[in-house]
Amino acid sequence: MLPLILYDIPSNVEGGYWAPSTTKSRFVLGYKGLPFEIDWVELQDIAPRMNEIGAAPSKRPDGTEKHTLPVLRDPNTGALVTDSFDIAVYLDNTYPERPVFPKDTEGLIHALDTAYIDQVRPAIKFLSLRAKEILKERSAEHFIITREQYFNQKLAEFSPEGPVRDQHWGALEKVFTTAKMWCDKTDGKWLMGNTFSYADVITATNLLWFKRTLQDDEWKRIAAWHDGKWGRFLTDAKRECTL
């Protein structure tokens, strides 16, 4: 079997990977035990590189299109798949051993994925501020320009210490207070009881995003919430996915 190719965004952290969208695909590939290689693409090179290989752009909620990562290329089938959720579905359909979508759960897990995105959004300026610090120089320059344009603010104004930063921390804590409520409704260690699923991949990759972008003391703060549940959850999920 030829290795699958995952297109990802590099950084200066160990191993390079950090973004939750691309890391979701990495977790699923690892969980299924599929061989894969990484093709690193700097932020400003995503559109030309994806055009070059023929990858379709992602559709935004407003109807516009934009090239994003992850993209997965499977030389065994010729498939070229965009979007982390679609990649997970493709991998389950094409390589069904060790599924990440238990029977009839795809719609439910998609709703969970959307819920995480919506809950993290109020803290995105704080997370963007920290993400800039770990990116490679070329990507960091592009990241700053595009984020300042998007938010119509200078980077230094994104999450100043004080009430604004406190609001961002409150939003992050709410994310995992809600996640704990979901977990508490099952008897096992995972969101679907004793069955590991893409719901756990979503949770773990958000945690990994925070661990890899936030400063050490900030990550320790999150890892300690709910009696250390989230630090343990990430460790267990990484072990499950052989990362």
UniProtKB/TrEMBL annotation:
<dbReference type="GO" id="GO:0004364">
    <property type="term" value="F:glutathione transferase activity"/>
</dbReference>
<dbReference type="InterPro" id="IPR054416">
    <property type="entry name" value="GST_UstS-like_C"/>
</dbReference>
<feature type="region of interest" description="Disordered">
    <location>
        <begin position="53"/>
        <end position="73"/>
    </location>
</feature>
<feature type="domain" description="GST N-terminal">
    <location>
        <begin position="9"/>
        <end position="99"/>
    </location>
</feature>
<dbReference type="GO" id="GO:0006749">
    <property type="term" value="P:glutathione metabolic process"/>
</dbReference>
<dbReference type="Pfam" id="PF22041">
    <property type="entry name" value="GST_C_7"/>
</dbReference>
<dbReference type="InterPro" id="IPR036249">
    <property type="entry name" value="Thioredoxin-like_sf"/>
</dbReference>
<dbReference type="InterPro" id="IPR004045">
    <property type="entry name" value="Glutathione_S-Trfase_N"/>
</dbReference>
<dbReference type="Pfam" id="PF13409">
    <property type="entry name" value="GST_N_2"/>
</dbReference>
<dbReference type="GO" id="GO:0006559">
    <property type="term" value="P:L-phenylalanine catabolic process"/>
</dbReference>
<protein>
    <recommendedName>
        <fullName>GST N-terminal domain-containing protein</fullName>
    </recommendedName>
</protein>
<dbReference type="GO" id="GO:0016034">
    <property type="term" value="F:maleylacetoacetate isomerase activity"/>
</dbReference>
<dbReference type="InterPro" id="IPR036282">
    <property type="entry name" value="Glutathione-S-Trfase_C_sf"/>
</dbReference>
<feature type="compositionally biased region" description="Basic and acidic residues">
    <location>
        <begin position="59"/>
        <end position="68"/>
    </location>
</feature>
